[in-house]
Design goal:
single chain; 142 residues; alpha+beta; 18% strand
Length: 142
């Protein structure tokens, strides 16, 4: 994305010093960026994703869940993790990878069953308890 900022000769000549001129150019830049990216946002209520070379990749509007994309502006802070919905964060953390192997709830060793394997096709699974080895020659803590 390229942004062109136009500063008139009159603005340059009527500006008392370079510091104020820099501020004028920066304000014009942000105004043009807001015009291109959509509805105006307060300077106090957004974050910048800045690349290593110092360029701004995008403006991050914080009152938006980064997981589901919905607004979190009206949500009580007890139900937020940063600016994300707490429920979205927990679902993302607790969602098991279907290609990973389940672990024994007693000793913690990996079992021969995938997380996605239905409990009717497992040996040693206790409903409400979880997967276990439950074989004395395999499980360390039995």
């Amino acid at each position: 994305m390229s942004i062109t900022v136009k500063v008139t000769q009159e603005e340059i000549l009527n500006t008392p010093n370079d510091f104020v001129l820099g501020e004028l150019v920066r304000n014009k830049y942000w105004q043009e960026r807001r015009n291109q990216e959509g509805p105006p946002v307060d300077d106090e209520h957004f974050f910048l994703d800045i690349a290593e070379d110092g360029t701004v990749n995008k403006i991050i509007r914080p009152w938006e869940c980064t997981i589901c994309g919905e607004s979190t502006k009206e949500v009580e802070y007890d139900y937020l993790a940063g600016y994300d919905h707490l429920a979205c964060v927990l679902k993302q953390e607790l969602k098991p990878n279907p290609d990973s192997y389940d672990k024994c709830v007693i000793c913690g060793k990996e079992t021969p069953y995938l997380v996605s394997t239905h409990i009717d096709h497992r040996i040693g699974y206790v409903e409400g308890g979880g997967q276990g080895c439950y074989q004395p020659n395999i499980c360390d803590r039995v």
